[in-house]
Specification:
Number of domains: 1
Helix content: 40-55%
Shape: globular
CATH architecture: 3-Layer(aba) Sandwich
Number of strands: 7
Strand order of the largest sheet: 3-2-1-4-5-6-7
Distance between the termini: 35 Å
Structural class: alpha/beta
Largest sheet: 7 strands, parallel
CATH topology: Rossmann fold
Order of helices and strands: EHEHEHEHEHEHHHE
CATH superfamily: NAD(P)-binding Rossmann-like Domain
Radius of gyration: 17 Å
């Protein structure tokens, strides 16, 4: 139950939950590879993580790019993929090309990560996906994005059996204070989050480090597989 000298790959680790997980894994003594689409965010991540971390520009929907990344690694111990986007599709009005990225990023990104990481893993290795509480409480007007959360959870449960003894799990965050909320909520961010926080049993939204702590737990605990761990401040209860 240690990450010391383990090779940890975090796809979508240049900000938010992914970056917090990279910091936590480094603190545990792991070797880190972090990917992201934005060169600007990767540059900032490098500055925060230091020379101990390797950063790679990669879009998770790029299958050949994902394959090439894992080909450069002699071994992989743990993988965490955070990628996911929200595409609105009220009453299924948009065409398929418009909403397809919501499934491509979360589900097919997870598929490529697992496909090319697993051959580099041995017993004790783990893969952690990220869904969202939409899998249990759908987002009205974002049906495909909601479906992508459920899809990746079912995928993880299947892989936990198919790839055993490699362990496969999913984290399911609720509202977490990340840059993604800036993009989603814009100028209404403070107003919306204050209203959300007032309803939650913990009376606040989550921090990236709190979700990262759960990811580190799933990497280290060798008896947990095929599970979905919800970290939502009690949001599904209210």
């Amino acid at each position: 139950m240690t990450l010391k000298d383990k090779m940890v790959v975090i796809l979508g680790g240049s900000s938010g939950i992914g970056l917090a997980t990279a910091k936590a894994a480094l603190a545990e003594g792991a070797q880190i590879v972090v990917t992201g689409r934005s060169e600007e965010r990767l540059s900032k991540a490098r500055a925060e993580l230091g020379k101990a971390a390797r950063t790679v520009a990669l879009d998770v929907v790029d299958e050949r790019g994902t394959e090439a990344l894992f080909r450069t690694l002699d071994r992989v111990d743990h993988v965490f993929i955070t990628a996911g986007i929200l595409v609105k599709d009220p009453r299924l009005a948009p065409d398929g090309a418009t909403v397809r990225p919501a499934m491509d990023v979360r589900f097919w990104g997870a598929f490529y990560a697992a496909k090319y990481a697993a051959p580099k893993m041995t017993e004790g290795g783990s893969i952690t996906f990220m869904s969202g509480t939409a899998a249990q409480r759908p987002i009205i007007g974002a049906s495909v994005a909601t479906a992508s959360c459920s899809a990746v959870e079912g995928f993880a449960r299947s892989l936990a059996v198919d790839l055993a003894p490699i362990r496969v799990n999913t984290i399911q965050p609720g509202f977490v204070d990340t840059p993604l909320l800036d993009d989603l909520l814009g100028a209404r961010r403070a107003e919306v989050l204050a209203a959300v926080a007032a309803k939650l049993p913990v009376r606040r939204i989550g921090r990236p480090d709190e979700v990262a702590d759960a990811v580190i737990f799933l990497m280290k605990n060798g008896y947990v597989t095929g599970t979905t761990l919800t970290i939502d401040g009690g949001g599904l209860l209210v």
